[in-house]
């Protein structure tokens, strides 16, 4: 139990967190000598069996003994059960994650560890007519990766690396593992990460889970076919203006970055697709849009519609305030308002961190520091980002600064 002064913390200068992630596993060269054997073994490990295995091993691996209440998790309203609403703020007490803001006592003696975890399954989101003949070149391959998350742990994201020579997609899921004393259910839930992979070369591609229990494991495969005669897959002949959200398209190059041409949900792919931004959580989308899942007859994981507006700071999660939205639409939305820390701030638990930060550790540093866990750029305050610039898929799990 730590006593905290009943004044707002003084501004601190801290470092924008560096990329400090657990090293990814890579397939050993010898393993590539027997692709047929690896394929057979991978197909034997059915999704149901893999989920059963995860349920047996998760308690020991994840150390999920508690549940984080109001620890700052950005705009992760859709990250699953276990999240409490932020309490009304009292201007006389520090704006931290304490469950009793009026007492001046921080009781959240908890911290979070970034930990590698296996994927449950992966599926290519594409019109069924393309699964056999292959995705046309010039259209992003959208991949849905499901991850089993236990108790009050959080899905930190899925990193991706591409082996262009072998035409392999390697996925590396990560969890934020909770360490604390609160009760937390050991029930597992599946949480999705949607990836958009642009500019893949023609040929057969395989998707591998580099964090599987038994080493790199085949999840699925797909084909990308070459452009046919009359197809302008790279827009060499197209002289139009790249479209915005919802505009009709046939190839990614007809959409403004970071949008891609999405065909799922279309009655007939011959009619073309729609310029859409792929997302996994609301913070992947520009304001005022939100991330849509499980809508009828439309693709999963895309930015559309309008997220819920706010009227007061008390309606926002820790680290966020109710601020005006874009486009002068006369609405306010919860947006990040944490101080940017420019130096490393060591910590023992969340109580040691400023408002909106969490005490985190990664396997390569073995030390704890105050960071802002994130899934999308919308979780980070000004000057910090969650995704590597120019990348569709490279979440770095904590808000970080990138400068030339």
Task: Please provide a written account of the structure.
The longest helix is centred in the N-terminal third of the chain and has 16 residues. A hairpin with a 7-residue loop joins strand 21 and strand 22. It is globular, with a radius of gyration of 22 Å. The chain contains 3 helices and 22 strands. The protein starts with a strand and ends with a strand. It has 404 residues and is mainly β. 8% of the residues lie in helices and 29% in strands. Strands 3, 5, 7, 8, 10, 11, 19 and 20 form an 8-stranded mixed beta sheet that branches. Strands 4-6-9 form a 3-stranded antiparallel beta sheet. The N terminus is likely disordered.
Strand content: 25-35%
What is the total tally of β strands? 22
Query: Biggest sheet, open or closed, and with what strands and sense?
Result: 8 strands, mixed
Which outline best applies? Answer: globular
Indicate the low-confidence ranges by residue numbers.
1-104
User: SS-based structural class?
Assistant: mainly beta
Reading the helices and strands in chain order gives EHHEEEHEEEEEEEEEEEEEEEEEE
Let me know the average pLDDT: 74
How helix-rich are the residues, as a percent range? under 10%
End-to-end separation in angstroms reads: 43 Å
């Amino acid at each position: 139990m730590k006593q905290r002064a009943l004044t707002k913390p003084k501004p601190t200068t801290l470092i924008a967190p560096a990329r400090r992630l657990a090293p990814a596993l890579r397939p050993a060269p010898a393993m590539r000598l027997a692709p047929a054997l690896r394929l057979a073994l991978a197909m034997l490990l059915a999704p149901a069996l893999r989920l059963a295995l995860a349920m047996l091993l998760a308690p020991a691996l994840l150390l999920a003994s508690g549940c984080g209440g109001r620890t700052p998790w950005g705009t992760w309203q859709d990250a699953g059960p276990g999240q409490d609403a932020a309490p009304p703020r009292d201007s006389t007490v520090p704006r931290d994650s304490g469950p009793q803001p009026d007492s001046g006592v921080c009781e959240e003696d908890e911290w979070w560890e970034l930990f590698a975890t296996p994927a449950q399954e992966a599926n290519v989101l594409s019109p069924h007519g393309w699964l056999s003949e292959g995705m046309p070149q010039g259209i992003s391959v959208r991949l849905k990766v499901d991850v089993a998350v236990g108790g009050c742990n959080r899905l930190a994201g899925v990193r991706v690396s591409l082996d262009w020579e072998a035409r392999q997609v390697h996925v590396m899921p990560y969890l934020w593992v909770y360490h604390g004393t609160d009760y937390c259910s050991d029930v597992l839930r599946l949480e999705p990460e949607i990836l958009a992979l642009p500019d893949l070369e023609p040929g057969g591609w395989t998707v591998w889970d580099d964090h599987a229990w038994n080493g790199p494991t085949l999840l699925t495969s797909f084909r990308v076919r070459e452009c046919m005669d009359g197809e302008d897959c790279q827009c060499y002949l197209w002289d139009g203006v790249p479209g915005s959200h919802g505009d009709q398209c046939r190839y990614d190059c007809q959409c403004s970055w970071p949008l891609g041409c999405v065909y799922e949900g279309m009655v007939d792919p011959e009619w073309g697709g729609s310029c859409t931004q792929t997302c996994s959580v609301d913070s992947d989308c520009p304001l005022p849009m939100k991330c849509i899942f499980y809508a009828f007859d439309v693709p999963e994981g895309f930015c559309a519609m309008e997220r819920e507006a706010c009227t007061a700071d008390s309606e926002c999660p820790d680290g966020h305030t109710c601020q005006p939205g874009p486009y002068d639409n006369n609405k306010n939305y919860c947006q990040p308002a944490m101080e940017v820390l420019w130096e490393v701030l060591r910590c023992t638990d969340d109580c040691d961190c400023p408002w909106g930060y969490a005490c985190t550790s990664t396997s390569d540093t073995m030390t704890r520091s105050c960071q802002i866990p994130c899934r999308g750029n919308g979780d980070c305050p000004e000057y910090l980002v969650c995704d590597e610039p120019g990348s569709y898929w490279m979440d770095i799990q904590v808000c970080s600064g990138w400068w030339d």
